[in-house]
Structure formats: C-alpha cells, structure tokens
Design goal:
alpha+beta, Pnp Oxidase, Chain A, 5 helices, six-stranded antiparallel beta barrel, 233 residues
C-alpha cells in the first residue's frame, strides 16, 4: 500500500494493528513518517472498499478485491432479538424508550460507517435513514425499514402496531421536506402521505410481501399511515 501523501510504499516494520475501545485501527506509516489510521477490519471478498482516514482527511488508495467493514462497539447490538425488543417497546402505550434509543443509535452509526450496509444478522433487512425537521428547526434522524412497491419507495408508520403515530411521522406531516440516506446515497426528498384507496392498495401490497404489517394493523384502532418518498422538486 502506498502513502496517500507522498506515494512511497508503506514501511512493513510499522504495519501494526492497534485496538481501542471503539474499533480496530490499522496504522500505516511511510519512510518519511506520514501516518494514517484506518478504523477497519479487512475482509476478503467483493464489494466497495470504504475507509475513514482520521489523519489526512481523505482515503488512502483502495486495495482491489477487498471489502472493508467498519466495526464498532455498537455492532454487536444489531441482532434480530434486539430488533424485536425495540419493536415490542415502540408498540406499547408508553412508546419508544431506552431500548429503542440504543438500538437506533447503533444502527445509524453502523449504517453510516458501512455506506448503507448493516452487517451481521440484519444484513438482509431493507433499512434507510430518514431525517426530519422538528418545530425548533432541529433535525431528527430515524432508521426505518423501507418497501419497494411497483418502483415506489415506501415507509410505514406502524410503531409496531402501537396506539400512536411515530414522532418522525408527526414531523414530516408538518414539514414534508426530508433527507433520505439509502445505501451509499444521500438525497433531499419530500414525503407524501397516501390516503384513501391508494393508501389501502399500497398497504395491501406491503402486507402481502411482509405479513407482519398486517398484524400491526390488526392490533391498533388507528389507520397506519403509508408514506411515499420522492425526490424534492
């Protein structure tokens, strides 16, 4: 591997791995003393390489045929049992609490570190990050499961079948301008709340693909909102 500052080959005697409480950090150094840190685990396989250079502020040259997955102390929390515990909490009368906050924090951090990929047990789940604006002007980011129905990008305000709509839905109902992070892409969008027969048809298609959402609707008296995400005009 070459130094991103001067192009010289790295010093093999300084090719070390340093562990800290948040990640495995790979230290690289060239003969002129330039050093860069990669908070990464190197895994063989195909896929996009990604790193976060802490010293030089830009990535060293990518190594071919290797996929780099950032690891943190939150990754182990992203399991199906943790997802189920979070869904059970948001579906209660009290609503989201500490379990949801911890899970969402871990998912957001891992999602961004891996350019939209969540490794481990939840790798097959379709997650996106939705950022909405609150009345004060502050931004709130929430990880959500998305659905593709006929080429349309949908999110469902289910709260696990709870009695109230989620906070992110209340925010976009007041201000439909949102930021969407999907995979490695980030784009500005607008949220359109579907209604009537259109909402019913889309929700039925979601239930057909994911029956769990039908059980959520059966468990609450409110009509669970269906939201379509579109590019901002």
């Amino acid at each position: 591997m070459t130094c991103p500052a001067c192009g010289q080959e790295e010093r093999q005697d300084r090719k070390t791995a340093l562990a800290d409480v948040r990640s495995l950090t790979l230290l690289r150094e060239c003969p002129d003393g330039h050093a860069w840190h990669l908070p990464l685990i190197i895994k063989r396989g195909r896929g996009p390489a990604h790193c976060d250079c802490e010293v030089l502020g830009r990535c060293p040259p990518r190594w071919p045929n290797e996929r780099r997955t950032a690891m943190s102390d939150t990754t182990h929390k992203l399991t199906r049992s943790a997802l189920n515990a979070m869904a059970a909490e948001v579906g209660t009368e009290a609503g989201p609490g500490a379990t949801t906050k911890e899970f969402n924090y871990a998912l957001i951090e891992t999602f961004r570190a891996n350019r939209g990929v969540v490794p481990g047990e939840l790798q097959s789940a379709n997650f996106l990050l939705l950022t909405t604006s609150v009345k004060s002007g502050a931004k709130r980011t929430t990880p959500l499961v998305y659905h593709r129905i006929g080429g349309r990008l949908l999110i469902i305000a289910s709260t696990g079948g709870g009695p109230r709509n989620p906070g992110w839905f209340d925010n976009l109902a007041k201000n439909p301008s949102v930021t969407v992070e999907l995979g490695a892409e980030t784009w500005e969008g607008r949220a359109v709340v579907q209604s009537g027969a259109e909402r019913d048809a889309l929700f039925a298609a979601v239930v057909k693909a994911t029956p769990t959402f039908g059980r959520y609707q059966d468990g609450t008296q409110r009509t669970i909102p269906v939201v379509e995400l579109l590019p901002a005009k």
